[in-house]
């Protein structure tokens, strides 16, 4: 394989996988701050769009988020639970910065790929396929 073929493979693979990379980086950033669990504060809530996207990220399937359990009445005799120690806040921000950087790098790569005028049609074909194929595969999730 020569360098021209390698660049062409990199071009099409990058354009094809960019939408999925952006999706997983974005949902990963949301999960770092546990935003996918915020709906659980409302008893009976089914979850918002963040919870749904988190299910795709974590389970690789279109599984509805579990409904929030009803709040139990507080016990009078029980002592309040000890607060959990906070995980590394610095690492959370580092992971979020990594996800944001991955999104930015993917968008920059798409912009660079788009600016090849002779490949514009194939750019949109690869990009559209990279958006539609994962959605179709999620819809077929229970099959096979």
SSE order: HHHH
Largest sheet: none
**Termini, distance in Å?**
35 Å
Q: Approximately how much beta-strand content do the residues carry? A: under 5%
Write a brief structural summary.
This protein has 144 residues and is mainly α.
Topology:
Blueprint: H1 3-32, H2 49-59, H3 89-114, H4 120-139
Fold and architecture overview:
- With 144 residues, the protein is mainly alpha-helical.
- The protein has one domain (3-68, 89-139).
- It is 60% helix and 0% strand.
- It is built from 4 helices and no strands.
- It has helices at 3-32, 49-59, 89-114, 120-139.
- Helix 1 packs across helix 2 and helix 1 packs across helix 4.
- It is elongated.
- 10% of the residues are buried.
Keywords:
0% strand; mainly alpha; single chain; 4 helices; 144 residues
């Amino acid at each position: 394989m020569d360098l021209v073929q390698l660049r062409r493979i990199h071009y099409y693979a990058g354009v094809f996988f960019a939408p999925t990379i952006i999706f997983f980086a974005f949902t990963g950033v949301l999960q770092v701050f546990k935003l996918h669990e915020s709906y659980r504060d409302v008893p009976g809530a089914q979850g918002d769009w963040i919870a749904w996207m988190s299910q795709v990220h974590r389970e690789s399937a279109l599984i509805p988020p579990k409904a929030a359990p009803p709040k139990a009445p507080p016990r009078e005799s029980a002592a309040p639970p000890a607060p959990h120690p906070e995980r590394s806040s610095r690492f959370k921000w580092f992971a979020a910065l990594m996800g944001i950087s991955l999104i930015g790098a993917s968008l920059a790569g798409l912009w660079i790929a788009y600016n090849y005028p002779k490949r514009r049609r194939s750019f949109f074909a690869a990009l559209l396929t990279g958006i539609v194929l994962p959605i179709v595969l999620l819809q077929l999730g229970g099959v096979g």
